[in-house]
Structures are given as C-alpha cells and as structure tokens.
Amino acid sequence: MLIDQKKYLRFVVYNLCFLQTPVFMGEEKDSFGDIKKFLLHLLGSNVFFLVVLSIFVIIALIYLYNRRKSMPELEVKLIGNDTWFVNRDDNKRVGIVVSVGLRNKSTSGIYIKDCKLSGYSPKENPGEISIEDLDGKQKFKLNLPLHKHYSKGQDFYIGPYASENLWFYYESRSMTMSNLIETPLCIKDSRKKRKSIRISIPRHAHQIAIYEQMSKIW
C-alpha cells in the first residue's frame, strides 16, 4: 500500500514538472515588439504617406481660404464707453449697443455691407431706449452713442487711410441676468471679405444698480 502511494506521488510530481515545460505553458510573447513592428510597417506604407499628405493639403487649403476671405487692412477697436446692453422692459428683449472704431490701412476704399453680432444683423436706430426704476413708476432714458449709426442694408464707405466711428444696435429674444456678454463681431465688405474680433459687452450701469436694489429687497 505504501509503495502504491509513493508511485502515485512520483506520477503527480512528474506530470506537474512536465506541464511546466514551454510546450504546454506557451512561450512568452513580446507585445511591445509586435507593436513596434506594426508601427514601423505602418510608417513605411504608402497609405500612411497619403493620409499625412491629405491632412497637410486640407490644412493648407483652410489657411489659404481664411487668408483670402480676411481683411487685414481693416483695423477694428471696440469703444468700451459706448458699448452696453440692457433687458428692455417695453418689448421684453435684450437691446445691445456696440460701438467700434474702424481704420482703413490700405490704399483702396472699403464698403461695409454687414456687421453681425453672433449671427444677428444690426437693426435700425431704436430712437430711444428706456428702463424702468425699481417700482416701475419712473423711466430712465439711456444715452445712445453720438457716432454714425449703421444698420443692415446700408453701404458705408471708408476711404483709404481713413478712420470712422460707428455704432450698431442689436436685439435678442434671449433674456439674460448675466452682467457680461462675450461674443464675436464680424464685419463684412462688398468683396465678401470679413474681419472678426471677440468682444465683451457689459450691462448698462443704471440697470446693474436697479438689480442690486432688487436683490437687497428680496
């Protein structure tokens, strides 16, 4: 009986040692080496070359298109003192006033055709913008800029090396309680070229004071 047990133990130990050989365990794979071979094969293939070339061509075309459509000769500066917005009480819309200083640095004139603010085209002169006080019994008339006003449909000409100050009026149905609007301003000319800048538009100081009074009461 003891002999049979010894034979059984020798049989188990022999099988365990045999199963540990590379034939049954399988050789350890070099994953990093396989990835390296794949990358080298990819870098040397024609497909990779064509993909890289296509990306460079697309980037170059986008750059040339933007350069052809841009107006580097037009300098645009925001006039902060005459730029603001309010929540209008009369039509429940946001009235936005934007004033800019334009300077033509080229030897040829520029015809302004449109000036979009986040997709909105400038409207006609509102004539008057008023906001109500805290009780709604008194109205405050806000001063509009004294620069030349521009609205969509007009052709405004800026001569060579000339400078002009313009203001635009926009309306939005999206009422906001934020005191600052950040949005792009895009000016287009008769050649379909454009000049874009990003501007910050603060809420009018009078309306901020009214809202601060309201917050203290609530």
Distance between the termini: 97 Å
- Determine the CATH topology of the largest domain: Immunoglobulin-like
How many domains make up the coordinates? Answer: 2
- Element string (H = helix, E = strand): HHHHEEEEEEEEEEEH
Radius of gyration: 36 Å
Low-confidence stretches: 18-26
- Helix count from the secondary structure assignment: 5
| Net shape | flat
Binned, the helix content reads 25-40%
How many distinct beta strands? 11
Given this structure, which CATH class of the largest domain is correct?
A: Mainly Beta
Q: Report the CATH architecture of the largest domain.
A: Sandwich
Mind explaining what this structure looks like?
The chain has 2 domains: 30-69; 74-217, Immunoglobulins (Immunoglobulin-like, Sandwich), CATH 2.60.40. It is flat. It has 218 residues and is an alpha+beta fold. It has helices spanning 2-19, 22-25, 31-43, 46-69, 205-217, and strands at 74-78, 84-87, 94-104, 110-117, 129-132, 139-142, 148-149, 156-158, 163-172, 180-189, 194-202. Residues 18-26 have low confidence and may be disordered.
At a glance:
The chain is of the alpha+beta class.
Label this structure with key terms.
Immunoglobulin-like, alpha+beta, 2 domains, 218 residues, four-stranded antiparallel β-sheet, flat, single chain, five-stranded mixed β-sheet
Secondary-structure map:
Elements: H1 2-19, H2 22-25, H3 31-43, H4 46-69, E1 74-78, E2 84-87, E3 94-104, E4 110-117, E5 129-132, E6 139-142, E7 148-149, E8 156-158, E9 163-172, E10 180-189, E11 194-202, H5 205-217
Parallel strand pairs: 7-9
Antiparallel strand pairs: 1-3, 2-3, 3-9, 4-8, 4-10, 5-6, 10-11
